[in-house]
Structures are given as C-alpha cells and as structure tokens.
Amino acid sequence: MFKNIKTNVVNAFRIIKSYSSAIFILTTETLQHKLGRTEYNDYIKQLASRLSRENVFYVKFFQAVCTIKSPLLTHELSSFLTSFTDNVPYSSSEIDFHTLELLITDFSVSIKRPFIPIKSGTISLIFEGTMHDKPVIIKCKRVGIDNKIQNAIFHMNHLIYTSKFIPHIKNLNVHEIYSENKQSVVDQLSFEKEVQNIELFYSKWNKPGLDYIKIPKVYSDITSKIPNVIVMERIFGKTITQIDADDKDIYALLLAKFNFKSVFYDAIYHGDFHPGNVFFLKEDKVKLVRSDDDDDDDDDDDDDGTPYTYKLGIIDFGIIGTLTRELQNVIYSLFHNLYEKNHIGVANCMVDNLIEPKDILTSESKKELVEIISSYSEMHFGKNNYKFLDAEDMIIINKILCKYGVQFSKEFCKVELSFAISDSVCKLLSNKTTYIDQLLNIFSTSS
Question: In a 3-state reduction of DSSP, which class is residue 88?
C-alpha cells in the first residue's frame, strides 16, 4: 500500500512539474511580448523552442500549426516552423557515436567526422555519408529518445484528459485523435517497421511509367542487425520554398497523381506528409539517338515539349496508414459526391459510413442530421471553386455530430488528419491552378 502511495505522490509531482514548467514558459514569454521586449515573431519562436525542450509532443503540435492557414501565422513564422520541425534542438549526448562507428567498421559506410547531423527530427538525427561510392542518408535514433517519448506521453495523457472537461474543446474529439496519434508516435520508434513501410512504398512506385515519384532504396539488412539506424539512398532535390513559381503546377499534378494512386489503387497513404518530407527534382531530359529504322510511334511518352523531367522525392515513412476496401470505397464515394456537388449524397455518405457509434441514431434524428450536413455542404462546397474537407470543416461538422451523440470514426479522423497535414504542401504549390483542381482532373478522367 505504501509503495502505491509513494508512486502516486511521485507521479503527482511529475505532473505538477510538467504543467508548471509549461505555464511558466508561456507566462514569461507572453509577458516579455506584452511589455514590448520581444517582437511577435520572436515571441512565437521562443515559445516553440522552449516548449519543445519540455515535451517532444510540442514539436508535433508546432508541426500541425504549419498546416493551418491563420492570420496569426506570418510568412516568416510559417517558414520558421516548417524549418524548426526538421531542426529540433539536440545535444551531443543524443548522438549515438557507437552506432555510427559500427556502420563505418562493419558496413563500409563513410561518414564525415566530426559526427554532425544535417537535420534533427523529433525521433532521429540525420547524417550524410556514402556507401560503395553512392550517397546515402543515415537516420540514427536519438540516444534516450524511447524514455523521453514515454515521459512525454505520461504528461500529455493528463493534459489531454483534462481537455475533456473544457467547454468547446471537449467536442473537438481531441482525446480520440490524440490516442490514435500517440500510437503513431510510438510506432515511429520502431525502425524495423519504418523499413518495412519504405519497402512497401518502393515496391508500389519502382515500376515502369511511375518514375515521376522517387522513393529511396533502403538497406534493410543493416537495420536488421542494428535496429536503431536506417541507411537509405539519398535523394537530392529542392525544398518547397526553393522551387520556381512556374514549376508549381507541374509538381501539384505529380502530387495529385501520387495521392490518387496511393489512396484509390494501393489503399495506403503517407501519414506525415509535411513540407520537410518531399523534395522537388528537375532534371535535364536525356535525348535518345534513334536510327532511321526506329518507329516514330516509339517516341518517349515523356516528350511534352519541355527540356526537363520533373519528379517528387518522398521520404520519412515512420507513419503510414492503410485503408480497408470498405473505407477506400467510402472515401471515393465522398469525393465523388463532392465533385458532383451532390450535397445530399455527401451527408448520407458521412452519416451512413463515417460516424460512430453507428446504431444510436433514430430515423428522425438521422433525417435531421442529413439535412443539416447537406446544408453545410451546399454552403461550403457548392461554390465555383472545388474543395475537399479540411480540418476546419471536420471540427465544425463534428460539433454538429456531437449534439446527436455521435462523432467521426477514429479511422476516418486518422485519414483526414493525414490529408490536413499534406494540405500545407498542396496550398504552397497553388499557382495558376490549385492542387485540388489537379486532383479533380485526375478524378474526372478516372471516373
């Protein structure tokens, strides 16, 4: 009994310490800003840096902030937060020197000394090197990150639990969404699983006619022997902020093709598709010298009149999702109804397939709910410009659902969250046409 009391007291102090630290940081930085000692941009940057050192889950929070459009998020802050999530602060004690030395001695991987990462994520530190004269990326787990994640989960569990009692927030399905994403973060600790994910996507895209998507080749034999490291082919390309405006429409089309094939053909999706996880390649076309006997009909299908070949390099497969055939068909039906502006169809698709618990609605309440969602759909999706469900729509509709004792299913929330994360990339690629226009063009030709 005394042991249990001691454990509870220790845990209580841990929770209080966590809350008080976060509140202290928020209070002091806000006070500095209100007193005019720090500019707004510097205020948010300091909050991001200090809170992220307290709990690694705050990094995921700021990563999510990058995906939303808000007047509070200036262009400078958006760029900073996008870069910040790829350059999370680290100390030299988190570098796994032993593993890096093993790669050099046992697997002939050349790594430049001193060991300085070129990127630093929440879970891993990223190093560059070569293997058999080919450039590779070494993704090495931070020393002690497993314990940090478990401690972070312990503290966040209580914070999320208290949110269930706060008006407005309790209807946002925060607890369920957090539970699903908590597991996703834990899954990222398994590099063996990530290697399997890379190999899965590689097998889907390393085929003739699909070379506009570049998935890195992974050396799985290394991870099987050293589970806290991944060595993979290095992809060279520009970041989303470096590409030319005139090229954005081309890349948006490639991204639309990637998502369309992944979701509707392969029944898988990238669960963490933020700007830091995609590279933009623009290569000079190689002209083949043909003999006079060659048939003109055999000309390269890629000959579109431009001197370049465009590709997307996709990385970081720590979080992926799979779709059941049923959910795949439902999402297709939802998308089709949005495309056709069939608002009754949109509402029925949601109420019949995407909510839980399923059997709680009476025929009368179901009819009311369909009418309300149909009106919302007509108001927000019935305009000239097409759009798909975004995070704001999900929150509003879920509030409506909660009044009837139901909510969006966990599976659909996971899929929609991944769509919302990738939406930040899509919006940055909008130029003469939007990403959703490109996706709808593919959808219309495939229907």
Answer: coil
pLDDT in the model for residue 136: 98
Calculate the CA 110 to chain-centre distance.
Answer: 31
- Please give the structure tokens belonging to residue 169: 């927030």
Contact between residue 140 and residue 228 where contact means Cβ atoms under 8 Å apart: yes
pLDDT digits 0-9 by tens, 251-287: 988 998 998 899 889 999 998 887 888 999 999 887 6
Distance CA 83, CA 209 (A): 33
Q: How far apart are alpha carbons 101 and 111 in whole angstroms? A: 9
- Cα 308 from Cα 237, distance rounded (Å): 14
Q: How far apart are CA 293 and CA 171, in angstroms?
A: 70
**What is the average pLDDT score of the chain?**
81
* Residues in Cβ contact with 216 at an 8 Å cutoff, skipping those fewer than 6 apart: 137, 198, 202, 232, 233, 234, 235, 313, 315
Q: Mind listing the domains of the chain with CATH numbers?
A: 2-84 (no CATH), 92-143+190-233 (3.30.200), 145-187 (no CATH), 236-287+304-447 (no CATH)
pTM summary value: 0.79
The string of pLDDT tens digits covering residues 328-348 is 999 889 988 888 889 999 999
